[in-house]
């Protein structure tokens, strides 16, 4: 493993962004939640990273979940929130909470 690699970025984000997006494509979406938790525990500064102005929590909440991966999506959002509760006030999370709620209810 290359521990410093968790802080390397591409135009699409950091490895944690790929782990979050992996929820949409993995046969076992819960595995993505475990990877996100692992990465957050590896580097306490990782919770502050943004891509295109989106915090990790905003990024995770903007994915289009379905019945097969919504539980993993909620687990990821909870893990990010637990690591950085202040993210709820950042960006558009508070103003879009109704839309996120509708997405979970759908």
TrEMBL record:
Designated name of the protein: Uncharacterized protein
* Superkingdom field: Eukaryota
């Amino acid at each position: 493993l290359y521990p410093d690699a968790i802080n390397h970025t591409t135009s699409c984000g950091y490895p944690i962004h790929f782990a979050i997006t992996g929820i949409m494509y993995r046969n076992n979406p819960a595995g993505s939640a475990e990877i996100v938790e692992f990465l957050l525990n590896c580097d306490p500064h990782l919770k502050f990273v943004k891509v295109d102005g989106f915090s990790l929590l905003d990024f995770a909440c903007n994915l289009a979940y379905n019945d097969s991966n919504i539980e993993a999506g909620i687990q990821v959002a909870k893990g990010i929130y637990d690591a950085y509760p202040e993210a709820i006030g950042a960006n558009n999370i508070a103003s879009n909470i109704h839309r996120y709620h509708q997405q979970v209810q759908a």
